[in-house]
Sequence to fold (155 residues):
Amino acid sequence: MNIKQLLGFVPLCMALSMSGPARAAEVDSSIARCLQAWGKQPFGANPRYKTLSTSVKVFGIGANPADTERTSSPSLVLVDTGVNVMGRTRLDLLNPNGWYCFKSNVNVMGSLIIKAACTAHLASAHDGATVLGSNSDNKSVTVMGATRVELVGCK
Fold:
């Protein structure tokens, strides 16, 4: 992919990263796959959830998305597709009652750091691939870069 194609891809990714509440039956099968991956979960077959809009970050330009809401009960969050090209992205998932379902992440020649609350639950809707890089969970696409999960708030 050349730079012209990449810059054309950025607006598309941004348009796909809108957020809002939804039900699992109204969207693709990402939520259903995560629920299946968790096995026992508190949401049932057709749960309410929110979508965390992730960012498109190219050459370090773009936002670092975060879910800092702390709920008193389990909260299901679909982490929408994130794209990081030749930069560093940090994704903060800090709700101790958060159940985070990753739709997918693409990391090319950059680093993606996922900071998650120690008691949060993480699952990916898709398997991943790593090419000439490091991807501790192998649940995203990483090409010549690194993806890692850091737990925070553990005692």
